[in-house]
Design brief:
Elements lengths: L15 E7 L6 E6 L3 E8 L10 E3 L3 E8 L8 E7 L11 E7 L5 H20 L33 H4 L1
Antiparallel strand pairs: 1-2, 1-7, 2-3, 3-4, 5-6, 6-7
């Protein structure tokens, strides 16, 4: 008999919580809390806002995320980039990107692992994949990306195939 899947998390149960910097580095610091329904963003420094702007990012508005590395070799931080399409004032949607600086560890590898953990958890929630109960979030939770083989026949069609390639 197959083991039962873990029960779904409650909407208010935090999956991850952490403190991040902003991009560029001189900006404020943020506390992020990821729940199954939303990403809560709270400004910490220089001072918390009385009326937070953009403090709640619904996962229904998130299209994806990625981790980035700085071009500077001396920068030990990793970056978590979240792509959203929030509703505008006139019911239209526009692309918005939020980039957070992961700088809690002393070296890049530790910061990269934390950024990857957040990206994996967010991707699992977006795709409807179950998260483990023990909180151990690794990239093995995601399915392997599909392999693709692209064949181009330069001699097919009208003949301008070599000019296109």
């Amino acid at each position: 008999m197959a083991p039962l899947p873990p029960p779904p998390l409650a909407a208010s149960t935090p999956v991850l919580h952490g403190e991040f910097g902003s991009y560029p580095a001189r900006g404020p610091r943020f506390a992020l809390t990821l729940t199954p329904q939303a990403l809560h963003v709270q400004r910490l420094r220089p001072k918390p806002e009385a009326r937070p702007r953009g403090g709640l990012v619904l996962l229904a508005e998130v299209s994806g995320c990625c981790t980035l590395r700085s071009r500077s070799a001396s920068d030990s931080a990793a970056y978590l980039c979240i792509y959203t399409y929030p509703r505008g004032r006139r019911r239209g949607r526009h692309r918005a990107t939020r980039t957070f600086r992961v700088d809690g560890a002393a070296n890049y590898e530790g910061n990269r692992a934390e950024a990857q953990r957040w990206a994996t958890a967010l991707t699992c929630l977006l795709r409807g994949l179950p998260l483990p109960e023990d909180g151990e979030i690794t990239t093995q939770l995601l399915p392997r990306p599909p392999r693709l083989l692209l064949l181009i026949n330069p001699f097919g069609g009208a003949g301008p195939g070599l000019a296109v390639v």
